[in-house]
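We emphasize that the prediction below concerns an isolated chain of 557 residues; any contacts that depend on oligomerization or on bound cofactors are therefore not represented. The input was used exactly as deposited, without trimming of termini.
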Amino acid sequence: MESFPTQGSPPIDIATEVLEDFETVIADDERLRPSDPYFSPLIAGQHEGISPLVDLQSELQEVDYSQALCLFDIGSEFLNGLGFDPGDSTSFDILFDETMLTNSYGSDIQTDTAYERLNRAVFARDTPSQDQRERLDSWIKRPLIPRQYDIEVIDVLIRIFFRHVDEVFSSFTDYEVSVHTLPAQVLAMAAVGALFSNSAGSEIIAKLYYTDSQRMLTYLILDDCSINTLERSASLLQTYIALEIFGLCSGHQRSDEISEASHSGLVQAMADHQTLLDNTDLLLDSASEGIIVINDILIIECYRTLLLQLQPSFARPHLQLVQTLLGRLEHSDPQNFLDTASVTTFYQELSCIGSISWFAMSHPTGNCSSPMGQYWRPETIEMYSQRLLESKPTEFTEMPSARTLLFTIVMALHTPLEHFQDIAHTIVAREGASRSATPVELGDLHARVLDQWTHSGHYDLALSHAGQILGAGEEIVASQRARRRFEATHDAVCVFLATLVFAIAKLGTENDSEAKVKLSGQVKIGIVLLESFQVRISTVFKSILVLLDNESWHGES
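Result of the prediction step, given as a token string:
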């Protein structure tokens, strides 16, 4: 396939010459910048050799174009804003360094989660060298420089972003890019869209846009006066949301850590947005839009707590929303519990339950009380989930991505997921160090946890819910092939966690060959589903599960 020709140069084969030469030149000469003649044709123009537009356009067949306002239509003033990058991204291949893992407010990253350790084990070879660290320090100190982005490519990637995001995050539903939209948000949305693209070079484009957006955001939050309207404040929140989605979906070894490092910035931006809402006289529609984006952040909290096993950070608006919704769920008539909560969506309501479910799960450090001053029992979370389903039967039936999230919430109540991810980490790390046919040593703690789980009443319940997640995943794949509905941002992670449960259950089934065959069959279903998903991280999950499916183990005596 031909790439778009550079002005004054012949077409270049994207699969060989350009990408290899691009990496070589960056490695050999750290002084090169995007404004240099060599790089300008690669980053400006049509992104020659990186992401051919013809591939992207082919992915948009039969997609509703009415969802997004084409960037060509919003005027030159806004587009000129995209032409300036607050940093030189020629070194975007090394930008995921721990020197970037502290947010602008100075707070440190939380202790590593099992999910993060497992993710890094897959990419251990990508640890930056000392030379890369020095280049990164030099890159960070460079001044702002102009860069010309290919607006047409960005427009296509944003459309891909919308079709995978707007069902879950309602603040992006029918969203139109306008003069109020921050350039950082545009690039963040395009970066996420590139994660769902199968076009050649889309992963490189995703990293480039993500890096530029992060740098723009860093400069933006240091300039408080630039966020002085409700529209720009909402755009700032949506930028954070898109960047955290990128951290979840990218599969890069440190992007999820970067998202965690900047999460307190999101919480602060949400508090500032709430202050603007409280101090501004708004029409009802404008007030509802301002509240919806805050409620969407609760979905991010649900993702962090359920999928990454991080304790939720409940801000004041979320505490009020959770208390209100859960209070109504406790009434005997669930059909009416949302009558006065018209600005919430099914996913936002589900995320209320998902966020508090963290306090009912089993954690290695013990259960924790919630900021609402009470402990939660798994039975209570299941009751809330059941009543939500009874109140929204249509959404539950017609939205398989909602089912993957809900069944993951319930499955996690019956599964020591953090231990399971640590077991997977042990196997993946061992595989990376040396290939061995001997059974893996799990250690006494993990062996005991696995044995207790397989002989408890939680075992069958967890496998049942995991099977329902895979069933919903099969519906998503079928709908995606028919171009009726597309995978949501959480589907790949939910399918991975469900398949992980089957894989670890297989490891714990020592003498039952029939059960091993059945469990292995479920693991293979999960692997096939992940192969069918488009999001970048699905390939990471697949490689982990293939290793687990071929593994055996014995605990320490």
